[in-house]
From TrEMBL:
SMART domains for the chain: HOX (SM00389)
Record feature DNA-binding region, as residue ranges: 3-61
Name under which the protein is recorded: Homeobox domain-containing protein
Location, primary (coarse class): nucleus
Location of this chain's protein in the cell: Nucleus
InterPro entries linked: HD, Homeodomain-like_sf
Domain Homeobox: 1-60
Keywords: DNA-binding, Homeobox, Nucleus
Organism in which the protein naturally occurs: Helobdella robusta (Californian leech)
Cellular component annotations (GO), alphabetically ordered: nucleus
PROSITE patterns with a match to the protein in the record: HOMEOBOX_2 (PS50071)
Amino acid sequence: TTQRGGRNISQYQRNILEKEYEKCKCITNDNKERILLATGLELKQIKAWFQNRRTKEKKEQGR
């Protein structure tokens, strides 16, 4: 997935984000630091990913 700044999220990072998303659909103070450290992404990238993932899930459920 290409980011606006041209930075890509690797498959490894995406796997971490998906696992965290399965545990909790939103970013909490508890999981925020863990995700930041594990992925090396910026907080705004993580927040955007979670928001986009929730949107994707809503669209899939609507089908």
